[in-house]
Write a structure and sequence with these properties.
With about 230 residues, this protein is mostly helical. It has two domains: about 190 residues, no CATH class; about 30 residues, no CATH class. The chain has a two-stranded antiparallel ribbon.
């Protein structure tokens, strides 16, 4: 498989940040009661991913290894601030709806993981493709969860009332338990379709760990991680 196609496939399907790696669950469950807000959150996160991945890839060879994490954090926080100001200026309703979760993109483990695992080791083209694919994977997950929760919990979709459902709401779906129910069901469906092979067990080993360079574990201890 072509490398760039493989990167896209991994980001959206094989290593989907929400359904496979189970990252970024706080904003995923908190903002997914409304499809429009969920898509907005996904696009804002994608913007930060693209900006930070590209910037980190460009200067990765100039960053001393001992201070790479603080440098990554500063860059990610900078692009998060840009995203927050843009949303506040041009999509104020979305800015109000996302609340604290918009600036918290700066500490989203999805963004930092891609910076550490991919952008810090690859060229700008591949890093940008990775950011776009992971961002789309996150946005897709947000869209699916939010669609189900809004349709059954509010009887609307993208704030448009739906026949019958708008008069027979199941309000638990827009509450916290509903978020976990929908999330669990979607993961179960994905595992059923893929027969549990979306991601191999070996991908959870030390080779893929963001902190492997500073882990400090012995070889035998690392073997236990696999």
């Amino acid at each position: 498989m072509n490398k760039k196609i493989s990167i896209i496939y991994n980001g959206i399907i094989k290593e989907n940040p929400v359904f496979v790696l189970l990252l970024g669950l706080c904003p995923t469950l908190a903002v997914s009661t409304d499809t429009l807000d969920a898509v907005g959150m996904g696009l804002a996160t994608t913007f930060v991913l693209i900006g930070s991945n590209a910037a980190i890839s460009l200067i990765r060879k100039s960053i001393p290894n001992k201070v790479r994490i603080p440098c990554f954090i500063v860059l990610i926080a900078g692009f998060t601030t840009i995203a927050r100001l843009l949303v506040q200026a041009y999509v104020y309703d979305l800015y109000t709806a996302l609340g604290i979760f918009l600036p918290l993109i700066a500490v989203n483990c999805i963004v930092f993981a891609r910076a550490e695992i991919f952008a810090g080791k690859n060229n700008i083209v591949d890093s940008t493709i990775d950011a776009i694919s992971v961002g789309l994977g996150f946005t897709l997950a947000m869209f699916l969860i939010a669609s189900l929760r809004e349709i059954f919990g509010n009887g609307t979709w993208f704030k448009m009332p739906l026949p019958i459902l708008s008069e027979n709401k199941i309000e638990v779906f827009i509450l916290a338990p509903g978020g976990f129910i929908v999330f669990g069901l979607l993961i179960a469906i994905i595992n059923k379709i893929s027969k549990g092979k979306v991601i191999k067990k070996s991908n959870f080993g030390c080779e893929y760990c963001p902190s492997k360079a500073i882990c400090g574990k012995t070889s035998s201890e690392k073997e236990e991680c696999k």
